[in-house]
Fold this protein.
Amino acid sequence: MNTELDNTRPKYRNLMLHVLCWAMLVIVPLFFHSSDDPWRQVWNRYLRWLGTPLAYMLVFYINYLWVVPRFLLKKHDWKMFLLINVGLITIGLCVMDVWHVVSRELLPELANKIPINPDRRPSRVPRYFWAMLTLSMFIALTVAVRMMQRWQHVEDVRKEAEAARAEAELSNLRNQLNPHFLLNTLNNIYALIAFDQDKAQTAVGELSKLLRHVLYENQQDFVPLCKEADFMKNYIELMRIRVTDNVKIETNINVQPNDSTPVAPLIFISLIENAFKHGISPQGSGHIKVDLSQSDGDITCEIHNTCYPKRENDKSGSGIGLEQVSRRLELMYPDRYTWEKGTSADGTEYFSIITIKKEKP
């Protein structure tokens, strides 16, 4: 239903633009006359002139609806295009002359007002020349309008194809993200089973809460920030279960419980996974700090953690998470985000700061 309405609106706007332009061309001459002229004389003169815009409309719409689309844009046949328009210009001149003669017969009052001396009758050559020039200008205008419409159509098709491709890519990223998140979480629970079955059981319970968000909310393009904040809290608590007391974990979630600011689901979770993966030493120590805030529609997620790069024999993870974050940001927030990341000067701390700016109205 919405698609049909969207397709109708451009056609309606195009029709109204045509009506407005021709109305201006036809009506405006009524306002250019001497204040001393009686309205009956002005009206009669105006009716005699109407043959001119009629010839313009005839030449314009035959080109607009048939000649330009078929012979110029489709077949690229310039010879036939020019030949047909020579005929149309001739027809247009005939329409002007016929209308002029008929109007003089139907409106003899104006013809009798100003008798014409046969010896001083003005030459028709200049009038025909200017009429031919004006008709040629309308033909050129038709070509310009059709070319512009064709370019706009091609541009719209390109944008639709690009949007479809982006949507397909986002869908593929979401499908990759679910198993990637689940695999990492199951690996954490598997590690817990070896030394603390009670914590592992608790972790399974926490995981079931998270899966609801992953399976349902992640299928939408955007979710309320408050729901994403709750998911991040639950995930951090799940990760907290498997670390020792020597790991200092700080969270600062400055998001109101009813904050409905839209955000892409799971957009920050890979950064938190990365912090837990590289922020804890082999001896089980380190610190992780996660800040999430929203101010005037701008969302900022800031993560700091101690930096312990993976050992060469550590095959866990493949970096797909951070690649997905980068690609999803480009697709969903083009020119609306900043991402600062790197290590401190002494190389002991890694930081990642993403700011998503509010969409301009």
Strands lie at 223-224, 247-254, 262-263, 286-295, 298-306, 337-343, 349-356. The chain has two domains: 2-158, 167-356.
